[in-house]
Design a protein that fits this description.
heterodimer, A: 282 residues, mainly alpha, 64% helix, globular, disordered C terminus, B: 200 residues
Chain lengths: 282, 200
């Protein structure tokens, strides 16, 4: 279902900020900028991904993931070596986990700005909100429980280790469906919110999530949870994908006119209309 | 956004813009690039693993029937030929012929799918499963991920049929975009076939 084909005739008239000190301009932007909520959500997203990278890769050092093939003493030693980083790093993760809310809201907003049914935005919002629980919080809880008492029974430590990493990998289906929802919305959209190639990049990202499924069967090799295919290639695609959607969301906010028709191009920028939507002729 | 239903029914427009011309949406060619890079990664992992245990790979490959792989390849090449004829016919406004060729593409795709399922069943009966050894991990992974592309391809071919069916639609650009996707499925298979069945 699509909205009536309407073109916004009145472009957004952007009120001019005062020409004073940077403080007064900042205050003015906070109080009057028509896109302040959108920019807020975008900056939250940028900061969250920076924090995510630093916390998961450098502070807790749970990524890249260690081997699922390790025996119990090696896993216990790994927890001993990483104990403080895990407790401190995941402490911050618990603190900032709520940043997912405005991030998901902005992603859903992009779909609400499209000419497609609201169902796409709602599905995406729900599925990604739920994904934060197993993908981030459950993993963080299992890891901190393991690191809190190093003297605990080693078998339980290993249990927590498996539980944490499988919980992290277990969000793959969510990202798979989320990417497909976004892809279909982009391909059907007539408001040119995103270029069609980004829709196809969503398909690529979705297909790399499928590849994580064998992680439940293997403890070593390319398909284990730390494997070249199940983790490394997947992560490279995800980082690229994240960089692309951050850039495209930024451009969307710049182009936003708060209308319901096609998003205007940025002033002074020649944007070739490369393609049409799948539903063009419908 | 331009309405392709209009542009599609005027083949002469394609000649007016020779400088920018690629078949279908340029966006789909970006997808071809993404997928090529992604599969280059998968193939690299396969080849590196192979160098570490070459005898196992060589021995496992003897369980694969080269004739099966050749048959699969011919089926997909014929499907690519049919979709190319479909695009050509659609450009010329011969929509009935284009539709017949689209259905031929689907038929050849189905032949590939059925023969692939038979091959998997045969391998499983021989005791070669996804967890048997490293070679068969890659074999089942590459053939399965390709089959997922093939299944998506059937949806894509459904769009081609939908477009060609009614004079109210018939977007040439969409037909060509879908054909580009289908050629990618074929292209990826040829590489997978070469790596799994032929390279020794």
């Amino acid at each position: 279902m699509s909205l009536p084909k309407m073109k916004t005739t009145e472009p957004l008239t952007m009120p001019h900020p005062p020409t004073g000190s940077w403080v007064s301009r900042l205050v003015w932007n906070f109080r009057h900028h028509p896109k302040r909520e959108l920019w807020f959500a975008w900056w939250v997203m940028v900061i969250f991904y920076q924090l995510y990278g630093v916390l998961f890769f450098f502070v807790t050092r749970v990524q890249p993931p260690p081997s699922p093939a390790w025996d119990t003493p090696t896993v216990v030693r790994w927890f001993d070596d990483h104990g403080f980083g895990i407790l401190a790093g995941f402490g911050v993760v618990f603190l900032v986990a709520g940043m997912c809310a405005p991030m998901n809201a902005l992603l859903a907003y992009s779909m609400r700005r499209m000419s497609v049914s609201r169902l796409f935005a709602y599905s995406y919002l729900i599925i990604y909100s739920l994904a934060a629980v197993p993908g981030m919080l459950v993993m963080a809880i299992a890891m901190t429980v393991g690191a809190l008492r190093p003297e605990r029974d080693p078998e339980i430590i290993q249990w927590l280790y498996d539980f944490a990493f499988l919980s992290f990998s277990g969000t793959m289906g969510v990202f798979l469906i989320g990417s497909l929802v976004w892809m279909v919305a982009i391909l059907l959209d007539k408001n040119r919110v995103f270029p069609k190639w980004f829709g196809y990049l969503n398909l690529c990202n979705a297909l790399t999530e499928v590849v994580v499924a064998p992680a439940w069967m293997f403890q070593r090799g390319a398909f284990a949870w730390n494997g070249a295919i199940a983790w490394w290639i997947n992560m490279v695609v995800f980082v690229l994908y994240t960089g692309v959607f951050l850039t495209l969301l930024r451009r969307m906010i710049q182009r936003e006119d708060f209308g319901i028709g096609p998003l205007p191009n940025l002033p002074g920028k020649h944007v070739a209309v490369l393609s049409d939507s799948v539903g063009a002729a419908s | 956004m331009t309405n392709l239903a209009d542009t599609g029914s005027r083949p002469q427009q394609l000649d007016e813009k020779p400088r920018k011309f690629v078949p279908g949406q340029p966006d789909m060619w970006m997808f071809v690039l993404f997928e090529s890079l992604l599969f280059t990664g998968y193939f690299s992992v396969y080849l590196v693993s192979r160098t570490q245990n070459e005898s196992l790979y060589l021995q496992s490959q003897t369980d694969l029937d080269l004739r099966n792989g050749v048959f699969n390849t011919i089926a997909l090449l014929l499907s690519s030929w049919a979709i190319a004829r479909c695009v050509q016919a659609s450009r010329e406004g011969a929509y009935r012929s284009a539709l017949i060729n689209a259905f031929m593409t689907i038929s050849f795709g189905l032949v590939f799918l059925v023969s692939k399922v038979f091959e998997w069943v045969k391998q499983i009966h021989m005791g070669n499963t996804f967890t048997s050894n490293e070679f068969f991990q890659h074999y089942f992974f590459l053939t399965s991920i390709h089959c997922i592309h093939l299944l998506i391809g059937f949806i894509v071919l459904g769009i081609v049929v939908y477009q060609l069916w009614s004079p109210a639609r018939r977007s040439q650009q969409l037909v060509e975009t879908c054909a580009t996707y289908w050629h990618t499925v074929d292209f990826l298979w040829v590489l997978i076939f070469a790596l799994l069945y032929v390279v020794r």
